[in-house]
Amino acid sequence: MRVFVCKCFTIFMTGGMIYYFLEISARHYSHYSMIICGGLATLLCGGLNQMFPKMGILAQMLVSSVIISELEFLTGYVVNIRLGLNVWDYSDMPLNLAGQICVPYSILWMFLSLIIIYVDDEIRCHMYNEERPEYRLI
């Protein structure tokens, strides 16, 4: 049980910090809530090939895009709408939902999810001696 908790914490924090610093490099600022959102995204998206070992990488990317968009919406709802912190606002973006998520960023998350999948697999392989999954396109 201790190893499982350590593994989840390592994956969560690594993904959360990558998410946070990617946002800083792109927008020159972020919010600590993005560490939480990114950590959860890494656990959920990175774990897809653990739960569904025959899932192709394209399917993982598509499902990951939905997962990340849902996490972004929930985080935005709490941080931006309920708490009024106005960390981001996608109201000017096409096909947005309450200014918290939009289709262009959902497409971007689909491609960036490759980083999440890779980071999760590298942590599992190198730190916890798990087998590297077999990647298949479809």
Automatic annotation (TrEMBL):
Entry keyword annotation includes Membrane: yes
Bilayer-spanning residue ranges: 5-22, 28-45, 57-77, 97-119
Record-linked Pfam families: ABC_trans_CmpB
Endpoints of the signal sequence: none
Keywords for the protein's UniProt record, in alphabetical order: Membrane, Transmembrane, Transmembrane helix
Entry protein name: ABC-transporter type IV
